[in-house]
Every structure is written in structure tokens, then in C-alpha cells.
Amino acid sequence: MQQREEVPLEDLAEPFSRHLCEHLRHTDRQGTFERSRFLDACRAFNRGEIDADELRDTTVRLGFQNVIDAFHVVGNEPLEVRFFEDERRGHIRGIRLTDDLLQLVESLGPDDLSAEAEARWRLVETAWSLGLPAHMLTIGYDSGREVLLTPDRTRRKAITPARDALNGYQRGHCFYCFDAISVEPGTPDLAHVDHFFPHVLKRTELGTRVNLDGVWNLVLACQRCNAGPEGKWMRVPALQYLDRLHRRNEYLIQSRHPLRETLMQQTGASEQRRREFLDAVFNEARHTGLGLVPWETPPRGPQAF
Ligand SMILES: [Zn+2]
Predict the structure, then answer these.
(1) In terms of DSSP bridges, do strands 84-87 and 77-78 run parallel, antiparallel, or are they unpaired?
(2) Where in the sequence is the domain holding 24, given as residue range(s)?
(3) What is the pTM for the complete model shown?
(4) Bridge-partner residues for 190, per DSSP?
């Protein structure tokens, strides 16, 4: 255990630079800064100009300079939790992982944590590559391909599978019944990307004013809740789930998730406005007839969020 908690920069350098090289291949812009000698080394590696050993040495020397210092700062505020301690000056010459990180890996599972991190990374680099101020970034959703898309309407490009981006909050549990779900395509318990307010509402007057494909309206549901015999189908969920949706959206906004700006654009600039928005959609949706009998389901697992 002691061995696993200590990670020298030498060991961190290979996976860290490998992920950056992969991302540089599809998005050359990886930050808001002008130049980075470390990223230049990754680009040189991608062009075949330096080898893996040189890349690793450069990564150890230059790759972590800002990353380790800035990792626990979110929106100019230091985080209360710490996922590692900086031990670059100690005998480890690296970082020491904390129990908070090990608990996070345990609660989400290593595969889902990787998918969630990848989804966030894709979202953030999309804003950088488009040169957009964060408040201009409005991510779209393609329900056919189940992906989140760039806001660029002329050439809409898939950024990340919607499931990966949504599962960070739900952590492998159905939004409605808390049953276990998977986000890995091909698995039998693969989650459905569910429109909280059903997409058939797009055909109503409400759907012309409100973007029902907005991230604010998307959750992950087990197949039983989404489309089982007792499933939700085209109905409007009961009020308790509306509260849950509000909590989810607020959590993503408060935690400075890359979807924060998108959520605020779609539902309101303040928490009160966002709550009023959800209440208004809920009341209107119920009057269309789809919500006359609100849909509910018994929990199939302990409350997860
Ligand atoms: Zn369910």
C-alpha cells in the first residue's frame, strides 16, 4: 500500500505525457497560455523528432511545474480536499496520493473515473480550441449519436459521449432508482441517456421555447426506468425527481464543471432563476397531458445523490 501511495515524477511522466501527446494530436491548443516548452516537447515526440526517453526526461523536468501547484485551485480558490501531497522536495521526488483520491477511485471505479476525466478534458479543450470565453461555450446534444457537440453550428463536431460526461455526478447509478448502470457501450446494463422532460415535448409549444436537448435536461437512467414495462417513457417525472435534477445542475455549476456555463446559459444566471426555470417547465409540461399522472419508481438501491 505504501508503495502505491508514493508516485515519483519519473513514474508519472510516462502516462502524463502519453495522454497529452494523444490530446495534442486532435486539439493543438491545450491551455490559455502562449507557449509551453513541455508541450513543444510533446509535439516534437508526435512528429517523431525525439524519442520516448527524451520525452520522459523533459516531462520530469518541465511537465509538472504548474500542474502540481495549480491542481487543487478551482476558480482561484484552493479546494478543501487534496488528492495528493506535493513531495517533490522530499525523498519521493514526486507526489503522495491521499485517502481522498483512493476513495474517489473506489466510489467511481477506475474505468468510469478515466471516462469522466476524459469527458471533462474534451469539454475544456473545446473551449480553448474555439478561442471562446467560457461564458460563450454552449454544448449541444445529438440524441442520435448520444454525444455532446461543439457549439459551432456550421460544422458540429462530437466532443465526448454524453454518458461519460453525465456519469461523473451519478457515479454508476440510475438517476431515478439508483440501480447500477454502466456507461461502457456493449455492456448489458448500459445506461440510457434520458430526457428528464421527454423529448416528445419538442413537438409542443413548450419545446419551441425551451431547449429540451440541453444538458440541464439530460440524465442517465437504467433501461428499466427509461423504457421498461413500468418505465418513464413519455411521462413527466414526479416532483421529488425535479428537486434531484435541480441539485444535480447546481452541483455541476458550483463545482465549476466544464458544463457550468452551458447549464447557466440554458437555465439562468442565479440559483433562484434556475429553480424558477425548472418549476415553470415542470408546470407547463404537466399541463400538456404527459404529466397528469407523474411517473415514479421505487428505489432499487441506497440513495446515491
Ligand atoms: Zn432506474
Answers:
(1) unpaired
(2) 2-102
(3) 0.81
(4) 182
pLDDT tens, residue by residue, 1-47: 444 689 999 999 999 999 999 999 988 888 877 789 999 999 999 99
What contacts 24+ positions apart, CB below 8 Å, involve 271-277?
A: 274/246, 274/249, 274/250, 275/246
SS3 label, residue 157: coil
Looking at the structure, tell me whether residues 164 and 84 fall in a common domain. no
CA of 290 to the centre of ligand 1 (A): 20
In contact, 287 and 238? CB cutoff 8 Å: no
Q: Which residues surround ligand 1, an ion (CB under 5 A)?
A: 174, 176-177, 179, 222, 225
Q: Are residues 22 and 127 in the same domain?
A: no
Residue 176 C-alpha to ligand 1 middle, in angstroms?
A: 5
230 CB burial (10 A radius; 0-12, 13-18, 19+):
exposed
